[in-house]
Amino acid sequence: MSLLEGLRGALFSLRTNKLRTGLTMLGIIIGIAAVIAVVTIGLGGKAAIMLEMEKNGINLFILYPKSAGQTGQSVGSGLTIQDGESLRRALTQVKTLIPTSVEYTALEVNQKRSSAMIVGTTPEFADLRRREIANGRYFSEEEFSADRRVVVIDQTLTEDFFGAGNPLGQQVIIQNVPCRVIGVLAKDESAFAQFDMGPKNAFAYMPWGSWSDIFQSTRVDQLEGATYREADLKGTIASAQRLLNVRHGTMDQYEVYNVQQLVQSANQITRILTSFIGLVAGISLLVGGIGIMNIMLVSVTERTREIGLRKAVGAKERDILAQFLLEAIVLSLIGGILGIALGIGSAQLVAYLLHWPPLLSGWAIFSAVTFSIGVGLFFGFYPALKAAKLEPMAALRYE
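and the corresponding structure tokens:
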């Protein structure tokens, strides 16, 4: 029996019982679809994180005392302006290093009040954080050096105080100190937005010296920086932590956040999700394989007389074995192909809804096809062997 004849016979046999064939393939379809979808969605998620890193800079980092941003109190010594200056002198691979201090307080405009995080920082903050200005400008070096009472507000404060009006040039009262609005920031959609300390409602930015005068404080909540090269980031972070501990006489009191941690978190989540879905898919494929074995055993029983007749006219055991193996392989292969199509479609839909880059995994598709054939071979072998071992005379007498 040629391969082509065997395939024709297998397809004819499967078409004879379409409903039974479809139900048998369901486990294979679900299992393969789950694997393809999870792998594709995982790759798209990683690609989205990498795009975010490239957009915001993969060489950025934030240094802060332990527990800052969680309880508002530091376990070890706090940071100072002098810490930043010392690190900039000592770490030649650092391109930018700026202080950031934050205070949550009420602002007032024309007797209307709203609370926000007031951030004291430097003119380099906007470039470091890749923050775009929607209206107006960021404060200049001259305004920073002179401790001018100027402020850049975000979209939330703009809507709260000015609605559709123009906020530029307006006075905002902070701690009874009038500050002039010179700019409005565009919405922050960067990876670092999640790290801003305190309530995630509204922010205003001003020169650090002005912030220090208004709140009568010289504390620095965090130092934000960037290295010239991504390769220098890990060594720079370790050196900065060591120098800060030496300056303050502490041990392991300073934490670091950087965008690359998002990739590690994403990879960990992807691994857990893939393992879980892989388990579910494995169970589904096992059920599908058992279904294939069951349907092939039923098929052998139904076609016992046909097998006996074929043997009586000269068919060899290997011909009968090949015929039923081909049926099992074709059954699982069709289920695998349908599962691949369903998995790709599901993954593309998720990527579209989440605005992720749609990515396909060639090895996952190849593995799915190979696994489908393997399921057909493994679970179809016993029924095929049973059919091949039937005695011709006993099979012809079977009712």
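(Above: one complete record from the training split.) The first strand starts at residue 60 and ends at 65.
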